[in-house]
Amino acid sequence: MLFKLWKTKGLKKGDKIESQNDIAKFCDFSLITIIKTLNDLQIEGIIQRKVGKGSYLNNAPWFTSHLRIGFFYNRDVVGGGIFHNNFYTKIVVAFEKQVISDGHEFILGSFTHKTKPILLWDDLDAVALSGVTSETNISDLNTSSCLLGFIEKQVSALSKNNYYIDFEPSFNEMFKKINNKNKILYLDSKIDTPERDIRTKAFKTSFKNYGKTNTLKIISVDQENESHKTANLVKMIIDFNPDFVCGYIHFSWYELIQKVSQKEVKIYSPLLDTKDPGFIVDSNEWMKQILPDIYLKLNDRKVSTQPKPYIAKFVP
To answer: Do 171 and 276 have their domain in common?
Structure first.
């Protein structure tokens, strides 16, 4: 219990620990047991007790230069497994590649909205979580001693260590480069998340600032769970006859959109690691922003600065 407390606080060799009376206030053990435990830790060389000054860590076995870094995804969000989702696959590969190249150990795992492998996380130094949404029980996240970071978290209650992508600059670039008087269809996801809301709001803001001479229509789609239900999308393509289709686009819809359209359509969606047209994220560059921030906060748990977002790039 004491090791978990000290690890959570990020204590290192030379840091002062709580007094035996302070420890007694937050644990259920008797003062005699606590004194014996501290004496045993002193004999083992873990702590050093200085008369009149208190006790200090003489060794922090949980703090090493060789780190164990995990990536855990939400099985309730990524249906069919992470390697059936191209977006998650590329993120995991880039994350693992960076961790290994930095000389550390990589662990891949999963969780659900209701259950988390807290005991496993306690054995790790840091874990990046992907797929935390408003449906996820977050009350148990604070019970883990490891450092938790969030990849594109989707719940506002978790304010720290959020690593996310800012698409608005890439939306701005698109509207600046396209001609006026175009018809633009934006596919908004039916999956209700703060991330979705932020991305859709950013697209609307970019349209207002740079694309008002065009015509914008927005429809809702379920690109994750109901990608086979395309009747409304097909009807909109035929009726609206857009020049551009943007937003949440399932890979199988690219050919469908071109097939039912009366003309060639420019299709721009958020994509990873490609030279194809769209709002592009280089996952290797993104991980080179994320991992150094994790290492910084492992070295000093008191660092609370929010990491800067990764800026997506527009490729016409």
So the answer is: yes
CA 23 to chain centroid, in Å, comes to 35
Percent of the chain with pLDDT over 90: 50
Residues 267, 287: one domain? no
pLDDT tens for residues 68-105? Answer: 899 999 988 876 677 777 778 889 999 999 999 888 89
Note the pTM of the prediction, 2 decimals: 0.75
Range of the domain at 17: 2-57
Give yes or no: residues 158 and 301 share one domain.
yes
